[in-house]
C-alpha cells in the first residue's frame, strides 16, 4: 500500500477543487485561507486520504501527477502547457530510448515529460541560454524526478548560437522566439529521418519560420504540418451536462518537420 513519506510532494485539493502543491516535512504545516494543514497528519497515511484543516475544511490528498506539478511549480519562463506537450510527444514520436535535443529549457515543463517518455535508456540534451531560467528549470526537474525512473539528462546553461556539442539526435524541439535562426545547427545535429518540432506562440513566427524553410531548407526538411490545439472540459450539475464556461484555447502552435537524407 502506497503511503506518504517525509519529503514527498503532496497535492491538497479543497472542496471547490482548488489545488495546493506542498512538500511534506515533519512538525510543519501549510497555511491557507481555510486554516492550517499539519503535515504530521499526512505522513504515513495512504494516498487519497481526506483530512480537515484547523478551520474544518475537508481536503483530499494525492501525490501530484506530472501535470499537477508543472502547473504549480516555480516558473522562470512561461511553460509549454500539458495539452501542447502531449501533442508534441505524439507528433515527434518520442519513444523509449530516444536521444532528444531541446533548445530552450525554460522552466523545465517539457523537459520533464521528455525524460519520462524516453525512459531509463533514453537521453535528453537541453540548452538554456538564460542563467536564471536554467537554475529554475534545474531545481524544478530535480525536485520531481528524485524518485522516478527517467532518462539521462544533460542540462546546459548554453547559447545554441555557440554550436551544439552533440549529434545524431533522433528528435529535436526548438522553443525559442526566432527558431529559424538556428535551423541549420539543429538540422545538422539530427539523424536522417529524424523529427524536428518548433513551438511558437504567434502567427507571425510561423510565417517567418516557413519563409526560411521554403527559401533554404526545402531540400533538407520535409514539412509534416502546422498544428494548434484547443481543450474543453465538460461539467455535470444535477440533470445538466454542458461544456465548461471556460476553455483552454490558444496557447501555441507546433510546426513539425522531418529530415531528408
TrEMBL record:
Annotated residues for binding of S-adenosyl-L-methionine: 107-110, 128, 159, 175
Origin superkingdom: Bacteria
GO cellular component: tRNA (m1A) methyltransferase complex
GO biological process: tRNA methylation
Catalytic activity reported: adenosine(58) in tRNA + S-adenosyl-L-methionine = N(1)-methyladenosine(58) in tRNA + S-adenosyl-L-homocysteine + H(+)
UniProt-recorded Gene Ontology molecular function terms: tRNA (adenine(58)-N1)-methyltransferase activity
EC number: 2.1.1.220
Span of domain tRNA (adenine(58)-N(1))-methyltransferase catalytic subunit TRM61 C-terminal: 61-235
Enzyme class: transferase
Alphabetized UniProt keyword annotations: Methyltransferase, S-adenosyl-L-methionine, Transferase, tRNA processing
CDD domains, A to Z: AdoMet_MTases
Known function: Catalyzes the S-adenosyl-L-methionine-dependent formation of N(1)-methyladenine at position 58 (m1A58) in tRNA.
Family: Belongs to the class I-like SAM-binding methyltransferase superfamily. TRM61 family.
Subunit structure: Homotetramer composed of a dimer of dimers.
Protein name, UniProt field: tRNA (adenine(58)-N(1))-methyltransferase TrmI
Organism: Thermodesulfovibrio aggregans
Amino acid at each position: 500500500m502506497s503511503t506518504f513519506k517525509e519529503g514527498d510532494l503532496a497535492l491538497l485539493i479543497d472542496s471547490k477543487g482548488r489545488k495546493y502543491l506542498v512538500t511534506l516535512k515533519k512538525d510543519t504545516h501549510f497555511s491557507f485561507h481555510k486554516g492550517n494543514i499539519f503535515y504530521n497528519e499526512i505522513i504515513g497515511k495512504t494516498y487519497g486520504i481526506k483530512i480537515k484543516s484547523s478551520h474544518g475544511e475537508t481536503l483530499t490528498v494525492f501525490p501530484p501527477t506530472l501535470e499537477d506539478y508543472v502547473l504549480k511549480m516555480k516558473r522562470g519562463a512561461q511553460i509549454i502547457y500539458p495539452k501542447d506537450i502531449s501533442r508534441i510527444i505524439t507528433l515527434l514520436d518520442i519513444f523509449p530510448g530516444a536521444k532528444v535535443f531541446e533548445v530552450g529549457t525554460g522552466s523545465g515543463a517539457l523537459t520533464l515529460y521528455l525524460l519520462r517518455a524516453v525512459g531509463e535508456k533514453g537521453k535528453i540534451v537541453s540548452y538554456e541560454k538564460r542563467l536564471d531560467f536554467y537554475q529554475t528549470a534545474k531545481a524544478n526537474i530535480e525536485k520531481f524526478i528524485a524518485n522516478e525512473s527517467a532518462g539521462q539528462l544533460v542540462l546546459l546553461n548554453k547559447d545554441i548560437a555557440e554550436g551544439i556539442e552533440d549529434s545524431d539526435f533522433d528528435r529535436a524541439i526548438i522553443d525559442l522566439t526566432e527558431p529559424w535562426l538556428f535551423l541549420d545547427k539543429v538540422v545538422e545535429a539530427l539523424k536522417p529521418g529524424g523529427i524536428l518540432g518548433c513551438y511558437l506562440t504567434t502567427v507571425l513566427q510561423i510565417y517567418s519560420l516557413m519563409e526560411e524553410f521554403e527559401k533554404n531548407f526545402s531540400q533538407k526538411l520535409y514539412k509534416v504540418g502546422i498544428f494548434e490545439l484547443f481543450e474543453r472540459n465538460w461539467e455535470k450539475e444535477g440533470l445538466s451536462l454542458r461544456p465548461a464556461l471556460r476553455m483552454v484555447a490558444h496557447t501555441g502552435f507546433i510546426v513539425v518537420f522531418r529530415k531528408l537524407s
